[in-house]
Amino acid sequence: MKILLKKNIICLLVFILFCASLVVPTQSFSSDKTLVLDRAEKSYFLGPYVGVLKDPKGSLTIEDVADSQPELDFEFLGTRTLNLEGVSQAVWLKFNIQVAPEDKQNPKNWILNPGALLPGHFTLYIPEIGPSGKKKWIIQTTAAPIIPNFMGRNSGLKPFFMLPGNLDRPTTLYIKIQSQKQVILSLKIVNEIQNMNNWTRDISFFNLIYGALLALAIYHLCLFFVLRDTSALYFIFYILFTCVFHYSLNNPTIFGLLDIEDITKYNRISLLFGVTCLFWYTLFVRSFLQVKTFLPRIDKIVIIFVFFNIFLAVMYTWANLVIWAPMLDLMIFFSTIFFCGMGFVVWKKGFSPAKFYLISTIFPSFSVVYYTLFIENLISYSSSMIAFLDISFALEGVLLSLALADRIRVLRSEREFAQGASLAKSQFLASMSHEIRTPMNAIMGMADLLKESTLNREQKKYVQIFQNAGQSLLDLINDILDISKIEAGQIELRESDFNLREVIEKACEILALNAHEKGLELLCHMRPDVPNFVNGDPIRLRQVVINLLGNAIKFTHKGEVVLETKVHGVNKDGIQLLFSVTDSGIGIPKDRQENIFESFAQVDHSSTRSYGGTGLGLTISKQIVNMMNGKIWVESMEGKGSSFYFTIELKTAFQPIPQTTTRLKTLKGIHVLVVDDNATNRLILMEQLSSWGAIVKEVSSGRQGIEAIESAKNDGNPFELILLDSRMPEMDGLETARQAGRQNGILKHTIIMLTSDERSRDISKAREVGIMDYLIKPVKHEELKETIQKALAKKINNIPQRDQQSSKPSEIKIKPLKILVVDDADENRFVIKAYLKSLPHEIEMAENGQIGLNKYMTQPFDIVLMDMQMPVMDGYIATQKIREWDKKQGKKETPIIALTAHALREDRQKCLDAGCSEYLSKPIKKAILIKMLESFTTEK
Q1: Where among 806, 826, 847 does a domain terminate?
Q2: Which of 207, 478, 619, 880 falls between 20 and 30 A from 141, CA-CA?
């Protein structure tokens, strides 16, 4: 590939040189040649008649030059174009002209046009013999791009000189040139009318080209606002700066209108336009060719090239242009070849729009190479070169526009394909979800029923493993559905007012059993200044909290897992909360912390084998947190535990006045003792109790608790309430209560036991020693309140326990219902019937929607449980027909609860749109089903 590329470059250069030799002839002229101006001619090339004298120090005057020996000092190049590398020095030009003898009686106005391709400062010296016979000089001074005053301002057109009409004999004229750049001249003498015609023609031609390019820029600006394609934006800037750069070279009027008379400033600004043009072109090529995707290694070089453009732009603002000006020409030359090579490689890799890019670079590449070789004085000048340069860039703009159109077509096609693939994936996942959830409903349901039966310890263990495995599979299905929705951009937030404390505490409650089975303390700490009621998406927040807590419990073998919530910031719309989940687990290696939130990321392969999991939970959590205008991060030390932090923004919501507010006044001034070996739990309880006005003392062991009780009694300030952890080293809570009761005569109902498991033997043993009140860790805020109020009420009123129980509200009575269950799966109908067998309901079964509809139309039902996917007639059609029949009969709508294995939010909406009253996703939990039935029919 490298050899082929070198051969192509060499062939291109040889071809250019060959063309140049054909187009541009060179001639030699003697030093004493005089140009005779004939009125019959319209113009003359002055270059072959011009001698050049370099003034390295710029110290020579016109007298020094005119009085010297011209044959020895001036060099006659004999070319139409003078390519003078007189940067930062003076260059003198000398030429002889004479008006033809036959034109003396009717002289014509002749104009000397330097035809400067690059700017410079020009001074014309015309000799004149005074009356005394002494020679003096008429001086005309101008500098590209300045001409005499135009409409009160400098117009900035290219310079020219008016030649005198009394050139009836050979006259030697001199021009002094000063510049900080290379000077290229195509000296011409033209008559005044022809000069104006030429100038008008050139301006019209260039304006036509620039107008076409500007039209392309406006067109792509409209496309950018519609498509938001960065390539189109880069293309717009490239076109605009290309127009300005070329306009500054061909018709620098803009500089005159801006009163830029300093030639150095003009040079700097024109170079800045050029390097800015190259900067945007580089960004366009990088974006258009998708270099980062197709050529990741080359992309680094392109980025360096971009930054070098910026560096070069900075240098052009102050540095010496003698050194830095040629860099732009070299950059353009090599970038043209380099970008063509990139386009070819990308095209070969299958990116079809690259072929239009390659075609678009043919003409500009030729003109850029030709122009660069000319600037370096390697080939001669052609009068059509500048025009061809502008035409080639106009053609490039048109072809790049076609390339962008093709790229848009390809991207649209790829987007449609991706959308189709995403839709197919979603349909596949929905179908697989249904196919898996349908048998899972029976499996999980039968496991629940089996667990309620009489089993020995070993059998219960088998059932628990059975349930855990089923729940893990269900969680995996939910994670895959969530990640597919995130990738498709379909995940949404459903904002509503909710009780933040309740959401957090319920999330902890779900995982409390898992933590306690591993012997871990699961603690929930919500700072008092955190508002209880906020507006946001409670379901997604709960999902993030459960994901983080679940991971913490999974990777922690001993110690504690703490969820803390506090206010991170306040703004006019709401608050920003900071959540942290801290554990004392295995920790995360530092090199894995950066990508821990990527899909399917694991700490390492051994973790996958030891702990399981897909690695999707953290990815989903990160996406949800980002949608809530927050961020998530981790701080961890291997072997010492991890802390996951995330922030979210929530709106403030109306907070109802708690009913227990007045009762909390009874806690003010009450002495409370907290006995717990876990420092974090003591801190949480102290903070909550103190916020209610209680006077709290905390100790870390049972023996210290007995000593504190005895000391408080002796001081005359006995504790009225004791919160006692059931499991502590050395002396547990039960033994502490026994000894405290024997030694200090403490009332039994002033002690509240803290236990990790409601099924624990600690509760029955606590009742044996007379402790009737207990709290399950993690302690909920409202439960702590209610339990304390109940304990204090017992103490104040001394009401026996049985009387307390008799004062409870009447139990809720469930009204017997006639329920129609429509499901094509025998096992699902069996599970639902088993769930409801302990309730006074009458169950009627139907195998598909048609049978269910027939039964509904022939007998009354209170509630319908409708599966949504069935043969013969699915649940959607059956529900619609039931609603139509109810309407015709003038009946009140019977509640229809959709039972479906589809778990996506749009599936729920589809069920509700069909006429269902509520929605349950399989596998169905017994408690949730019963609670939903009660919500429709309960009565006191």
Answers
A1: 806
A2: 207
